[in-house]
Amino acid sequence: MSPTRHTHSHPTQAATISVSANEHLPHKAIHTVHFWLGKRLSTLRQWPISLLLSWLVIAVVISWAFIPGLFTAYDPLTGIGKFKLQPPSWVHLLGTDALGRDVYARIVYGASHSLSGAFVAVGLGLTVGTLLGLFAGSAGRKTDTFIMRLVDVILSIPSLLLSLSIIVILGFGTVTAAIAVGAASIASFARLSRSEVLRVRNTDYVEAAFGSGGTFLNVLWRHVLPNALTSVIALAALQFGTAILALSTLGFLGYGAPPPTPEWGLLIAEGRNYLARAWWLTTAPGIVVIMVVISANRISHALSERRS
Amino acid sequence: MSKHLISHLFQSVLTLWAAFTIAFVLLQALPGDAVLIKFLASDFGLTPEQITELQQTYGVNLPLWQKYFHELGAIFTGNLGFSVQAGLPVSQVIATNLPPTLLLASLGFTAAIVLALSVAFLSAFTCFSWLRQALHALPSLFVSVPVFWLGIVLIQIVSFQLGLIPVINPGHWEGLILPTIALAIPISAPIAQILIRNIEATLLLPHVAVARAKGASHVWVLWHHVARNAVLPTLTMAGLLFGELLAGAVVTETVFGLSGLGSLTQQAVNNQDTAVLKAIVIISAAIFITINLIVDLLYPILDPRLRVAQEARP
Amino acid sequence: MTDAAKLPVLDIKGLTIGYREKDNLTRVVHDVSFHINAGEVVALVGESGSGKTTTAQTIIGLLADNGQLEHGSVILNRTDISLWSQKQLASIRGAVVSLVPQDPGSSLNPVQTIGTQVSEIFRIHNRGSRQIIKAEVLALLERVGLSQPELRYNQYPHELSGGMRQRVLIAMAIALKPLLIIADEPTSALDVTVQRHILDLIDDLRKEVGTSILLVTHDLGVAADRADRIVVMRNGQIVEQGLTENILKSPASEYTHQLLTDAPSLTSDKKRISLSKQQPTHPAIDIVTVKNLSHTFPSHGAAQPFRAVDDISFSVRKGTTHAIVGESGSGKTTTLRAILGFLKPSQGDILIRGTNLSTLKGEELRQQRRHIQLVYQNPYSSLDPKQIIFRAIEEPLLNFTLFNTQERADRVYNMLQRVGLSPSTAERLPRALSGGQRQRVAIARALILEPDILVLDEAVSALDVTVQAQILELLGKLQQAYGLTYIFVSHDLAVVRQIADTVSVMHHGRQVEIGRVEDIFTNPQTDYTRELINAIPGKRRFNSVQDNFIAA
To answer: Which residue windows are transmembrane per the record (chain A) (predicted)?
Structure first.
């Protein structure tokens, strides 16, 4: 498989390049699309298997969240008492819990809680943190120092404690847990985006852009943002995994959604009482969490590699 | 040098003060009233007059700014407030709960460092590429494992399946084995990741090629020219890792039913005992800041490049 | 002479090396054979990608992990070491064959003292006790020309200058009196005047110890000065090899001939690239005037602020090239940044097209940039990695909202053609281009606004000689076509001689000399300028060849 990979990819690229070279002005758009498509397809073939698998995991979990009915026929909330605590079988892929509910169905339906929570958390951290970092990185020295000192102080408090403090104020629940996790990640987004802005600001090409008559906003938009954002997006992917972990921790501690919501952390917490009799109750949701987090980390790694 | 020390100390105190302020602002915004929650419970049956009296003794009704300075001043005398839930001064509650957590945290930290160093250096030593790849993949697996789940699985396998460590009433040290492992594995991951990255980057540096050109063996090169250069930057992570460790302890203690700062945090959150939570936040920030201060002061001693820069500073 | 001396110290036969990347093997060295006799200096000359470094690495067994010796043999002192294990190789590294690396800045371990690092080579090979080793190391440090060896012994690398660090590395290389020293671009990271001293030192030590030297270099001038024989490599193959004298006088291959004509240091005065002189003389207008320019940087460490530029004055005629020459720390970069308006000087005036820069602010300064543009030293960092070439060249036009979309595109493609790039380049990202192509893009981008003045900051020093010559020629053509004025900042006097009309020589922030290029070269007024001129490699080629005849 691998030798053919190269022979396939290169000719397509080479062909499209030579076409666009011969008649560059007319039909440029069409050839650009061809070029783009060819490039995308060939890069997809060059992807490592681990990265493809990671995207697959994320795609499956997202489909669980949107169309859970397609993946399981069972109801996640009501079970049949006489089928309680059954080990995995073809009827119940991941067994049943103490109330006879299908564990696989509960995991599938739980995806929407965990994923939406993680999206809210990352969205909050990303927007607030990046804006803060951008502002600090492009504002004057005093503003920058003030904001970054504040960020340092927040980073000195362990994120779980920060989340717990926010939960104490806002109360328990899926949304508050998501906000608590997101708020705790603001500082790291701010720090990264600021350092990226400073890094890009000090490059020759940014000075060159000013030198060719670029205004501050022009340069920020054309050069600083695109080049600083790659790392920020990589961090966002990483934080997505971290948020899933943190949310499941909060769920496990009982600060997330209340039972019988099939949130992943809560599933593991509920399984704790049957450790000796039903290993699948805790093992299965845990492995799902691990797979999602590993995939998010792998994707983040691939994104940050693209920078260099 | 002493000027350098003083400026670092001053900055640390400033950060601590800011952390206190943040904790105060955050936790004072609480709408519920811990005193009322506890004493208005039906089985207490106090009269409204008695409740007001209690509120006054706890200083609940002071204006916010007065309360802020009151608490800030109290910290200097070691007074961290009063735990409504336990009915004891917070300092006393913390004093009984801090030692077991510190013990668990230091055991976990040591195990994590040993684990990370072995993974990183084994991957640098080995000549089998499959083993190197497996070792490289290990940290990204470790970092993705939820601590609480790991604890549960460990109990399941070691205690229930293998019957090695009893679940109920294990010995003191025996009871710490599984929590230490559960805590160490996720914490070791970021250390190992950074170590592996640093070792690989250092191995590519020209000074390593020069050492090899002198006739140094792979082991000699790793020991004399890579180890110190690669381990140094990981020191800066120590403070951050401690935060993770403490957060890990909250979960581990809950899973294994141990008493300590972790289970105290959980109780404080459940009972909205803000005084205790505030104290825990401030203490963990203080430990973080202290560790960073030590690292900052230690760094120039370990890295000669920073020595000159500081001596030159007026 | 003994029997051993007649046999070559190093004999390479049919060396073929490739790099494995995933599934395919890229061959970088093809069937390379040459030898080095005892006490001989052989230069391995080639541009980037010629395979010279890979060849050198293989000889000392330091090929990268994915490098693979496909076939061929490396016979060192009558033993074929090409199939040796790393363990076996370790026993001869440092003792029989040693290395002087390229970049003294990063080639010493930053967290170990100089003493520890020089002693290390004795300790690895178990030569003597601690006291004996220390005495030997101190003697070595003294021998390589370091003052106060006792002090150096306990210092760390960052406390030494680049030249001193290279001396330390040379001390390591000669410590065990090896048969062969591989000097891999030993001076390319150093200032010109330091370069010469280091090469002299290597030469002296060779004569003293009798070691053979493989000098790997991109600089034919250096090879001409120092080598007995030259091996020219290109694209992994040997183009030709022979006695230095023969190669220089009558190169057999087209490529060597090209290298010889392109190397600025080997070119005589006659071959001048700048065409400005042949033009009908412009009315003598000074387009740039710098008056009493000084700049001081506030410094955090030292007690006194750092005076980077100290009272500099010069003016540049329209349509001519003025060069600012100096080594690192001479203040040439600060001067340049002040002229471009990136930096507000502490004192002095800069007049560009009659406008005093210090009176300009904000929008006026931005408008001023239409008339003066900069080409950076490093073409890899001056182009936005995320911007396709078309956008990069178009951007200055957008900044000043000139022309409509169609007209801008026409101008971009027209400019691409002028700088000698194919239209297909427009859609590519910078990383798909070579260094020379990128520098052409940078020039196109600078010229699209049709400025009067182009500031070139070491604009060719990161490029290979043949590419360098092409870019210089392009600059010459463009100057003639547009009547451009160049301010050419460089450390390389040989290039300056080719392209500039007038020159300022800077040293420690001061302008030590200014005048017409011919005058400065034929009749330098200061010691420093003389030293700079003498440091240009390639001058001693015939002398050195004669020396060797006498020595033999």
So the answer is: 49-67, 118-138, 232-258, 278-299
| Cα angle C207, C210, C215; round to 5 | 80
Q: Is B3 part of the contact surface with chain C (CB cutoff 8 Å)?
A: no
Pick the closest to residue C107 from B212, B203, B211, B207 (CA basis): B207
B213/C101 CB distance under 8 A = yes
Q: Examine residue A260 and say whether the peptide bond preceding it is cis (omega within 30 degrees of 0).
A: yes
Single-letter amino acid code for the residue at A30: I
Chain-centroid distance of CA A9 in Å reads: 29
The one-digit pLDDT tens for each residue of chain A (308 residues) are 333 333 333 333 333 333 333 334 444 444 555 555 555 566 666 778 888 899 999 999 999 888 888 887 777 777 777 777 778 888 777 877 777 788 888 888 888 888 999 999 999 999 999 999 988 888 778 888 888 888 988 888 888 888 988 888 888 888 889 999 999 899 999 999 998 888 888 888 999 999 888 888 888 889 988 888 888 898 899 899 999 999 999 988 888 888 888 888 888 888 888 877 778 888 888 999 999 999 999 998 888 876 55
What is the interface pTM, i.e. ipTM, of the complex?
A: 0.82
Question: In angstroms, rounded to a whole number, what is the distance separating the alpha carbons of residues C488 and C344?
Answer: 20
CATH number at residue B227: 1.10.3720.10
User: Strand, helix or coil at C149?
Assistant: helix
Strand partners, C68: C18
Asked if the Cβ–Cβ distance from A213 to C449 is below 8 Å, we say yes
Neighbours of chain C (3+ CB pairs under 8 A): A, B
* Beta strands at C347-352 and C485-490: parallel, antiparallel or unpaired: unpaired
Tally the domains of chain B: 1
Q: Do A157 and B147 touch (CB under 8 A)?
A: no
Domain assignment present for B251:
yes
Six token digits for residue A23: 């008649």
Chain center to CA of C115:
30
A-B interface: how many C-beta pairs under 8 angstroms? 136
Q: Which chain A residue lies closest to C22 (C-alpha atoms)?
A: A2
Mutual orientation of helices B274-302 and B2-28 as an angle, nearest 10°?
160
Nearest of C173, C256, C251 to residue C212 by alpha carbon: C173
The answer to whether residue B3 sits within a structural domain is no
Surface of B (128-187) touching A: CB under 8 A: 140-141, 143-149, 152-153, 155-156, 160
Chain B partners within 8 Å of C298 (Cβ):
none
Against chain B, the chains showing at least 3 CB pairs within 8 Å are A, C
CA angle A175, A176, A178 (to 5 degrees): 65
The alpha carbon torsion through A37, A38, A41, A43 (nearest 10 deg) reads -110
Establish if B107 belongs to a structural domain: yes
d(CA C50, CA C57): 13
Which of C370, C384, C423 is the closest to A213 by Cβ? Answer: C370
Residue C431, chain A, CB below 8 Å: the answer is: no
Q: Does C305 touch chain B (CB under 8 A)?
A: no
Please classify residue B89 by burial: count the beta carbons closer than 10 Å to its beta carbon, then call 0-12 exposed, 13-18 middle and 19+ buried.
Answer: middle
Provide the 10 A C-beta neighbour count for residue B294: 14
d(CA B107, CA B238): 15
Q: If you ran DSSP here, which 8-state letter would residue C77 be given?
A: T
Structure tokens at C181: 């020293």
Nearest-CA distance C106 → chain B (Å)? 6
DSSP 8-state secondary structure symbol assigned to residue C252: S
| Interchain contact B246–A (C-beta under 8 A) | yes
